[in-house]
Write a structure and sequence with these properties.
Elements lengths: L15 H7 L4 H4 L12 E5 L5 H9 L4 E6 L2 H13 L5 E5 L12 E7 L8 H11 E12 L5 E3 L3 H16 L10 H7 L4 E11 L2 H17 L1 H8 L5 H15 L5 E12 L3
Parallel strand pairs: 1-2, 1-4, 2-3, 4-5
Antiparallel strand pairs: 5-8, 6-8, 7-8
Helix pairs in contact: 1-8, 6-10, 8-9, 8-10
Length: 273
Amino acid sequence: MPEPRETAVYTHGHHESVLRSHTWRTAANSAAYLLPSLKPHMKVLDIGCGPGTITADLAELVPDGHVTGVDRAPEILERARATAAGRGLANVDFAVADVHALDYPDDTFCVVHAHQVLQHVGDPVRALREMRRVVRPGGIVAVRDADYEAMTWYPASEGLDRWLDLYRRVARANGGEPDAGRRLKAWALRAGHTDITATSATWTFAAPEERAWWSGLWADRTLASAYADRARQGGQATTRELRDVADAWREWGAREDGWFSVLHGEILCRKEA
């Protein structure tokens, strides 16, 4: 595996097929492990906020507090601002930031949250160290990431096997770690966290509408997103091979007995008071 580096290329980009997935995410389906720890007055930093759907939910859950959503991509923050404005939220703001070097003083936030972020960064240990730095004593660093190698489906599909192998190779060529979920606790320990609660949770796609949505967004992502461009440019796949993978996704989605599960690793790290 290559040595960690501070920056990595974001594998997915912000194609419509990617945002179709990201805007589906809510605090309930993507941060349930954190929600019991939230209090109305808290000041929260949401790292890698993307289009802001989870950020907006967090703002509603801390009505007497404040949420700051940050992302490296300025263009996606406009979408996040529109999400918050559409929900009439006044206790949220957004800014461009790099998780490796957060522009906030020590001990600023009650909670620092990151969903599906560390799999895409060049140095996740440094990122977790920065998150620990900006959270207050007694505060929480909450991180959740998928683990691609642990994803599983039925029925067996050589095409989806090729998809998984291809995605992992492209993500690692971009400087990321697609199997981040299983590594979160180890990374947190290396970053200096000592009070760590590690859990896991899944997304499951089995109902007809779920299969159609999940398979459709991955088929489209395989053909038209930044991920597809990087697979071609990096020599990991030809256009024909990408079409074959997209076809495999659609074939799986049309199966009445189709089932797909996404495993996530989760950590809650409480900073020493």
